[in-house]
Structure formats: C-alpha cells, structure tokens
Amino acid sequence: VTVNGKPASESDDITVMDGDYTFTVTGDEVNYRQDVTVTITNGESNSVRIDDLQPGNYTVTENTEAANAKGIYLLGAKSVTVNVTAGNVAEVPTASFTNTKPGTPSFEKKIKDTNDTTGETTQWQDSADYDIGDAVPYRLSATLPADVTSYKNYHITFTDQMEPTLDFNEGSVEVYLNDSRLEASAYTLTKVDDHNFTVRLDWAGEGDATIADTALNGARVEVYFNATLNATAKLGVEGNVNAAKLSYSNSPQVDELDREGHTPWDYVIAFTYKFDVNKFNERDEALEGATFKLEKLIKGASDAEDAWVEVGITSTDSNVFTAKGLDDGTYRLTETAAPAGYDVIDPVTFVVTAEHGVEWNYSSDGAADPVFDNDRAAASQRFEILTDLTGDVTDGDIIALNKANDLSGLEGNVSDTPLGSLKLTKFVYGKELSDEEARLIVFVVRGEGGFEQSRTLYDIMHGTNDTNNRYSVNITNGVVSYVWTLLNLPVGTYRVAEAKFAPDSWQIGDDLDIVSYEGAYNVDEAMVTVDSETVADVTVTNTIGTVFGIKQLSVRKAVEGAGYAGDEEFSFKLAKYTALDDASWPRADALPAETVAKAKAGETASWGYIGYAAEGTYYYTISEVEPETKTSGMTYDASPRYARVDVAADGRTIAGYAATIEELSALSAEQF
Q: Where would I find the beta strands (DSSP E) of 91-182?
C-alpha cells in the first residue's frame, strides 16, 4: 500500500490505508473458488498464502469497490493469473497488488502590492490596494503530488473568476513549470469572458505506460496574469475580490472529468479609495466655481526620474471635488482656478496610507462558482480586512484629512482666501500733465511669488478697465490725481515703487514711506500690506516747481434783455493788474498757460487752477474781449473786473510746504 507515491507506513497518516482488502481466487482448469482477506495495519504492506492447491492456472481478483469509496485506488490490473505446479514450494507463485491513495496537489492564489511613490513591492500576499486603471498582478500556484508518475494521464486546470470590477487581461498570462516558462502550446488558455478564464495542463505516458517524467512528481506550476481595476470598482472595505481553484486528476488508472478532484476556492482582495475636497469661503459657506487637479508622485515615471502624474477619475459637484480610485502613495492637490474674487490655495501635498491584513484565511468548496460574500452571509470577514486609512498632509492649505466610516476614502476641507485690492494714487500739484509728460513716470508693483505689474501715468490716463485693473483721472481743488486700482490680488506684502524718469525740476515721491531698494528700475520703494477686508492705499506726490497752494479762477457770463436765443461764445481775458508795480507780485508767473477763457450765455468760463509758489497777494483783472464780428444788437461789457488772491501759510502740508489759499474775492479798483 502507498500514499502519494511512497509506502503508507512512511506517510503523514500511516493508518489511512488500514483495513481489509478482499480478493477472489478461482481455478481456471479446476473447480476452485475461495475469498481471501488481506488486512493492513499501521500502513504496513501484508500478504496471505493459500496452500494445497491443485496444479493449474488460477485467477486472483481484487474487489476494489470498498477501497475506491475511501479514495483508494488499485494500481495496475484488477486481476492477475498465476500458474501453480506440483511441488512448487521453494518459489511460491505470487499475485501482487498495489493499492494507493493518490496524492493531492496544493494550491494557492496570491496578489502583490506596490507603492507607486516609493517603488516598493511586497511579497505575494492576500490583499493589496491599487488605483483605478492599474493592472493588478496575480499568481496562481500549484504543487503537484509526488505520484504523478503512477498515472497514465494527469491534468490540472486553474479556474479563475473575478468580480465585474476587474477585467482579465488575456495577453498577460505566463505559465511556469519548475521555474521555466512554458510555451503557449504547452497549456490551454480559455477566456470565458472578461472576468473568467481557465488554464489547463496535460501530461501522458507513452502508449499504455504510466508517465515517465519524474520531474513532475512534486513539480511547481505557476500562472501569472493581471487584471485591470475598472471604473466600477468598489471603494473602501468591501474591496474587489478575485477567486481561483484547482481541478486535478485523482484516478491513476482512468483520467476522467467526473473523477476530478477540486481544491476549495481561494480568495484575494484589492482595495481602492476616493478623495473628497469640500470647498468653503472664509465664513465656512460652500463655495462653488473652483477647479482642481490631483497628481500622484510616481517613482521613475519620466526617464527613470520621479514625476507627478495626474491620476484619478475626477468630478465636481457643487462645492465638492472628488477623485475616485486611488491607493497608497504621495499626492498633490492643485487648485487650477478659484471662484471669482478668491485666491487659489497653495498646492496641498499629502500621503495616503492604508492598513490591511496580508493574510485572508477564507475559502469555499470547489463548487462551480465562488462565494464572494458581498452580503456577509458566508462570514468570510471580507469587510474586516481593511482596518485603517489615513492621510498625512505634509504641505499646503488643507485643514485636515478625515477617513470615511467605511474607509471608502479621505475627506478634507479647504478654504479660499478672498482677494484684496491695492489703490495707487498719484497726485500732481501745479499742472495737469500732458501725454508726453505722463509717459515719463512709471510705477512698479511687486509681490510674492514673482508677481510684478507696471504702468506709466499715460497708461493710467488712457487705460481701459478690465477684471483686474481700474483707471481714473480726477481734478479736485486744483490737484490732479491719477488712480490705478489693482483688483483680485492675493493677500500679502507688496512693494510699490516710482521710477525716477520725471524731469529733474520735479520733486518725486516726497510722501512715500521710502526704503532703500536696488532693483531693475533703480527706484525708491514703499511697502504695503494687502488684505481681503480693506483696500490698501498708496499715495505718491509730484510737484512741479514749489507750490504753496492752488486756486481756480472763473467768471460767469450773463446776457440781459429779451429774445436772445443765440449760442455765441464770449471770451474773457485774465491778466496781471497793471496799475501796480510788478515787484508787488510775490511771483510774476502766477498766470495760467492760456489767459483767454470762453463761455456761452449762462455758463462759466474758467482759467483752471493756478499754482502759487510763494506767499503773498496776487491781483488780477478780468476783461471781456469784444469779438471782431459782433452779434447784431448786442452791447458788450468793457468794464474790467478785479480779483485778489491771498496765499498765506496755515500748516497744511503740500509737497513738504505749509500753505493755504483764501477764497477768491471780486473787488473793485478802489479796494486795492
């Protein structure tokens, strides 16, 4: 008696072959029949001797039905004929029978886990995690019994069945025998569907002989393949399961499918996760309109160098950004566009770590289909393998990463910071600048992260408003202001500088909070902090000459009489009062560039603002200029009007000087 190719007494269970084996002995030429029992104890082979037989041929037949029911098979013929001769004592004819319990192959299914960021790969185990779209590697392993050479024909069949969340890649199959890869002709691969396939290997002896290749005894057969984790993958603890079993020959004499043995189904599981980002504003209110991208650090992704690769099946619903189908590794979240009026977050780098048991001791009988236990009815502990999921933020603006209760993924909240504004106002005392003069002054605004914008006063005077810039020119009380407002600025510190391109006679930027700055523009610089609550203000002043004060001079034209409906323009001339000595004027050029102003009836003629460079009293005459062509019936007023402007210091700061301007008075000549 033997077990798996060796004496039963040397097997792990020496009593497995114990029992009574019955034989029938019949005489072919004499009338003889006798039943004989051979008893096996402790796996030791045994024999029975029959004496006093008549010479002749006898047939010995083993009755194997009872043994076969125990999985014990007879090797060789069921009946043996022996010839008995008279006096044959020294060499007793013997009918030899060998009963065996065939060996059973071992089988296991495994999966391997790889961290894309570190490049580290585990040993073959029962669980792993992968990104959606990854090719998940699997191995089916069988160790053949030690008695393959006792068979005339022997076969094994690997049957693999996976859940619909995994797609079998037929071209990935490789089969090895004792570590040597087999040609495809050495096995039969059958793809049943996208989630189910078989691999069969057959061996046979020559003619009616048993298999001769002793290397098959105890041989190791391995099938390697991969399957793609598809977009329907289950997230979190449920995982995505792949099962396999092995079918094999277990009747040494006859290789028939109905006599096959089957191992239990063996199971492995692949996990994948999602990542949710909830977008809020500074008041913790849902904020829509942002777009994100998620990248993973992949070792050796680009010319053997580590690189960030965009990953995940992403979607946006209201203020929630979701990336689905991730595994462990290092990720970077980048906000590619922020909602209007908000700044993008700094990119967020985080590390995902999953804890799952590497051994899953679950199997089911070798029936036609596996039991995936999605409903937990089989007590497979499928939902207990994944035990933890964490996200460690290493850099960026995210608040925290929390795991979902079913470990389906991680969730984090990010808050966008409202953008700020910076208002740069350029005051010019003494005159309104021409386009040519405006081109001589340049302002530069520099911020963090390489931010830089520049504008000339000409740009500000003629610029077109857009989303990020507003321009205006204003004249108030004789002061011309040029305003450039920068909108949608990230909060932070900015440098505002005025380039020294203005004429030497101008005083530039006297009221800036000046600090030394050496840069591309060779400029003085002011520091300003931009926040989201207020508009940051920077004021810069130019003065043309030395200006104590500014006053606007004007006259209103009235026409008396009935029936006038004309649109004639009347001209008025402003002049220094000539009855006085020129020396009485504190400064002789306190006149506008254009001394004639015009107005229609009921309107005001103005000479604009006049800058005064010295304290004192200034006297003017205002006279109507009679036109060369007069309106019929119109009488013009040739009488001069008189004006006096007093300029005196009162502590007001204008370009570093104290000055005030008293109200203009209309005076008669007698009052001088």
A: 98-101, 106-111, 127-129, 135-143, 153-162, 166-168, 174-177, 180-181
Note the pLDDT of residue 7: 82
In 3D, which of 381, 147, 396, 398 has the Cα closest to residue 269?
Answer: 381
- What is the enclosing helix (H) or strand (E) of 461? helix 457-462
Please state, in angstroms and rounded to a whole number, the distance separating the CA atoms of residues 504 and 508.
9
**Cα–Cα distances in angstroms (integers) from residue 394 to residues 138, 305, 320, 656, in the given order:** 33, 21, 22, 52
Q: Which tokens go with 447?
A: 């911020």
The full length of the chain comes to 672
Q: What gap in Å lies between CA 62 and CA 42, rounded to an integer?
A: 21
**Is 346 in contact with 397 (CB distance < 8 Å)?**
yes
Q: Could you give the CA distance from residue 475 to residue 118 in angstroms, rounded to a whole number?
A: 65
Q: Which residues of 613-649 are buried (b: 16+ CB within 10 A; e: fewer)?
A: bebeebbbbbbbeeeeeeeeeeeeeeebbbbbbbbee
Q: Is the CB of residue 495 less than 8 Å from the CB of residue 445?
A: yes
Sheet harboring 442-446: ordered strands across? 452-456, 442-446, 492-499, 524-530
Spatial distance between the Cα atoms of 447 and 497, rounded to a whole number of angstroms: 12
The strand pair at 174-177 and 386-395 is best described as unpaired
* Segments of the chain scoring below 70 in pLDDT: 65-70, 88-93, 253-258, 398, 429-432, 476-479, 499-525, 540-552, 562-563, 578-594, 608-615, 647-672
C-alpha distance across the termini of the chain, in Å: 148
Helix (H) or strand (E) holding 69: helix 65-69
pLDDT in tens, 10-30: 887 888 888 888 889 999 888
Contact residues for 638 (Cβ-Cβ < 8 A; gap 6+): 623, 624, 626
Buried b (16+ CB within 10 A) or exposed e, 82-107: bebeeeeeeeeeebebebbbbbbbeb
Amino acid at 553: L
480-496 in b/e form (b: 16+ CB < 10 A) is: bebebbbbbbbbeebbb
CA distance 661 to 614: 11
Residue 65, pLDDT score: 67
Instruction: Name the 3-class secondary structure at 430.
Output: coil
The residue behind tokens 């160790």 is: 143
Return the pLDDT at 69. Answer: 59
Rounded Cα gap, residues 371 and 160, in angstroms: 13
Phi/psi for 298 (5° steps) reads: -110, 125
pLDDT at 568: 83
